[in-house]
Specification:
The complex is a heterodimer of chains A (about 400) and B (about 300). With about 400 residues, chain A is mainly alpha-helical. Chain A folds into two domains: about 250 residues, no CATH class; about 120 residues, abc type-2 transporter like fold (3-Layer(aba) Sandwich), CATH 3.40.1710. Chain A is elongated and about 100 Å long. Chain A starts with a helix and ends with a helix. Chain B starts with 5 loop residues before the first strand and ends in a 14-residue tail after the last strand. Chain B is built from ten helices and 14 strands. In chain B, a hairpin with a 2-residue loop joins strand 4 and strand 5. In chain B, the strands form three sheets. Chain B has a six-stranded mixed sheet, sandwiched between helices. By secondary structure, chain B is of the alpha/beta class. Classes of the chains: A mainly alpha (about 400), B alpha/beta (about 300).
Chain lengths: ~400, ~300
């Protein structure tokens, strides 16, 4: 009971220190919200059912033949393209800026296509695609759409008599494509859910780091000597520090997800218990990270530099910035050794994937296990450091 | 006869690979103020750290009212109030929050703690500043609050490490008035300084340390007489001089003149009054401005380095 009272006194002091500078505290809570919102907006795409996707392209016509004019008109009228006619120079300037990423050029000589006969080989006219170097997917998409448009036009030109009066459906593909998104819970990816989970986790780690740096700073001051002179076991100091860090982390989780829910509809569609357990484990991970920073960081400046590098790396590799499914396979394999990947997998599961408690329990256990291991390592190092300090081995 | 409030017997302490305290024996009784005097690096702070229980001695015994830290760590800690060097307070918290926090570390709580906080704030004259943040306090107010934080759990022994380092003359006098009152209330007070005039002004006994060894101990007048013969000047600077200026000044003054600067406090020692006058002129020529200075009738200086 006496120890619990001590731990609460130590944690209460850190809690008051956090709120002592209200503006700094509010900024600390606001930054992940702002970043998560920005990431969500950047990566958010309308659902496929809501709005048909069209590819923005520019069309450059350099041949004045009638077939070329009809192909250009078909391209501009295609429901799969958001096409606009421009000059070659305008197209090159726009594509270099990726506004848009692809331009279709019907060059001089394209009109020779009207002489094409099925099964007859010979020199074929050229159709040129200009594309931004980083837009390989858009180039392939444009190539597919353009091929379809040109072949339809050619079919109409060559088999006009046969098709007479039979309508456009004759040229339609003889099959129907049914696209379906597949995920563990049958849910669609939600960029806002992902960004709020990712940024919350990243800033929990940053808060843990900051707490560790505060601890290092505190140990340089007279207050540390006064605390050491008091009848306070080192274990209570560490527990108090961890409790305060976890409490602030919990506030951060509540603020970030609360804002995400109200502003962008980020919701727990899976197990609420799983979400609560994951949030608690992640807060514990932040607290343990803070103690670890204080235990192995050495000086404050050194600890800050190394911690920022490590946190950014584990955030990136753990899929906190971009969804893990966009990362190469080997990165996803490496990420399994990181708590961030497990935490992200679990939070993604209970938010946009709609998974149940059993499905996210391995993530909860993994994050809690990492937190316990970090705490044990930090406590061992800090207690050993205290023994050396008492003995004058510095 | 009750045991002394604080007893150090043949205490040895290491700091890194260096022997910081070597065979020190010293007792401080209730109702007594003892000044620990010596130049920088003489072992004053380490002695206080050992007495406060934050540094384990490599040998010897430290007991507070007969209780050793090894036998009863919590009991030992509750009997000691420690005022560390450089301020042991949270600037971001209010005076009352600081005292409440440190009181809780000593197992205090509830109404009893609130009553004690009110009492110690009144004792150091900071009642009207209870709700103000420490960051808004002057140096003197901070030091008084520092003292209050060590008094909240009402320990019999008070240990203060360089309590006057950041104080102006008025603040220093106020602190010594507080220490005298604490002595009259039955506390045992041990504080460190390397300004002998302070020890002369506020101590019942002076213990002189050099190289980690106790080289003199007794009433201030007696110890001062042993060291008489050197001319010493104590001053209070208008601003703290940068380190490079202190180094340049030491080179200019030469080996026969001692120059010690602690915060804004200055101690200048020389073999004769004429040498001291020349040294003072050199200090002033470097642009250091003195608010006040005085030359005590009897001074110790480095003359006391010889074992007594």
């Amino acid at each position: 009971m006496a120890r619990l009272s001590l731990i609460l006194a130590l944690a209460g002091k850190d809690w008051r220190l956090f709120w002592a500078d209200r503006r700094a505290a509010l900024l600390c809570l606001a930054v992940p919200v702002v970043l998560a919102s920005a990431f969500g907006m950047i990566f958010h795409r309308p659902t496929p059912d809501a709005t048909p996707n069209t590819l923005p392209v520019l069309v450059v016509v350099e041949d004045d033949g009638p077939l070329t004019a009809r192909v250009a008109a078909d391209l501009l009228a295609s429901p799969r393209l958001d096409a606009k006619s421009v000059t070659r120079a305008e197209a090159e300037a726009a594509v270099a800026e990726r506004r848009p990423a692809v331009a279709v050029v019907l060059p001089a000589g394209f009109e020779r296509l009207k002489d094409w006969q099925p099964g007859v080989s010979g020199e074929r006219p050229e159709l040129r695609l200009l594309h931004h170097p980083a837009a390989a997917a858009e180039r392939q998409w444009a190539e597919g759409v353009v091929t379809e448009v040109v072949m339809r036009r050619l079919a109409r030109e060559k088999f006009g008599g046969f098709l007479h009066g039979k309508g456009e459906e004759v040229l339609a593909a003889p099959f129907r494509v049914d696209a379906a998104a597949v995920s563990a819970g049958g849910a669609r990816f939600n960029a806002y859910s992902h960004s709020f989970c990712g940024m919350t986790l990243q800033y929990l780690l940053f808060w843990g780091m900051e707490s560790g740096l505060l601890f290092l700073r505190e140990r340089e001051r007279g207050v540390w000597a006064r605390t050491r002179a008091a009848p306070v076991p080192v274990g209570c100091v560490l527990a108090g520090k961890a409790l305060a860090t976890a409490a602030v982390a919990l506030v951060q989780v509540l603020v970030t997800f609360g804002f995400g829910y109200l502003a962008f509809g980020v919701a727990v569609t899976g197990s609420v218990t799983g979400f609560v357990l994951l949030a608690a484990a992640a807060c514990g991970l932040a607290a343990a990270t803070g103690l670890l920073v204080a235990a192995v960081g050495g000086t404050e400046a050194r600890a800050r530099s190394v911690s920022v590098l490590v946190i950014l790396t584990v955030s990136m590799v753990g899929g906190l910035w971009v969804p893990a499914f966009l990362l190469p396979g080997w990165v996803r394999d490496v990420a399994l050794s990181l708590p961030t990947a497990w935490a992200m997998r679990g939070l993604g599961g209970v938010t946009w994937e709609g998974l149940g408690l059993a499905a996210v329990l391995p993530s909860v256990l993994a994050v809690a296990g990492f937190a316990a291991a970090f705490f044990a390592l930090a406590a061992w190092r800090l207690k050993a450091g205290e023994r050396r300090l008492r003995a004058g081995d510095v | 006869m009750p045991p002394p409030a604080l007893s150090l017997v043949d205490v040895r302490a290491r700091y890194g690979g260096r022997v910081a305290v070597d065979g020190l024996s010293l007792e401080v009784r209730r109702g007594e103020v003892v000044g620990l005097v010596g130049p920088n690096g003489s072992g004053k702070s380490t002695t206080l750290a050992v007495a406060a229980g934050v540094h384990d001695p490599a040998g010897g015994t430290v007991a507070v009212e007969g209780v050793t830290r090894a036998a009863d760590p919590a009991g030992f800690a509750r009997r000691v109030g420690f005022v560390p060097q450089g301020g042991g307070l949270y600037d971001e918290l209010t005076a009352a929050d600081n005292l409440t926090y440190f009181g809780r570390l000593y197992g205090l709580g509830g109404h009893d703690l609130r009553r004690r906080v009110v009492r110690v704030l009144a004792r150091v004259g900071l009642t009207d500043r209870a709700g103000h943040r420490v960051s808004t306090f002057s140096g003197g107010m901070r030091q008084r609050l520092n003292l209050a934080a060590a008094l909240t759990h009402d320990p019999p022994v008070l240990l203060l490490d360089e309590p006057t380092a950041a104080l102006d003359p008025a603040g220093r006098d106020a602190l010594f008035a507080d220490l005298t009152r604490l002595r009259d209330d039955g506390h045992a007070v041990l504080f460190s300084t390397h300004h002998l005039d302070e020890a002369d002004a506020g101590c019942d006994r002076v213990a002189v340390l050099d190289g980690g060894r106790l080289v003199a101990c007794g009433p201030p007048g007696e110890v001062l007489r042993r060291g008489a013969g050197r001319a010493v000047l104590y001053g209070h600077l208008r601003a703290r001089p940068p380190k490079f200026l202190q180094r340049a000044l030491r080179r200019r003054l030469g080996p026969g003149v001692e120059l010690e600067v602690t915060g804004r406090r200055l101690r200048l020692g020389a073999a004769t009054a004429a040498d001291l006058g020349a040294a003072l002129a050199a200090v002033l020529a470097e642009g250091l401005e003195l608010d006040t200075y005085r030359t005590p009738a009897g001074t110790l200086g480095r003359g006391a380095e010889d074992p007594v």
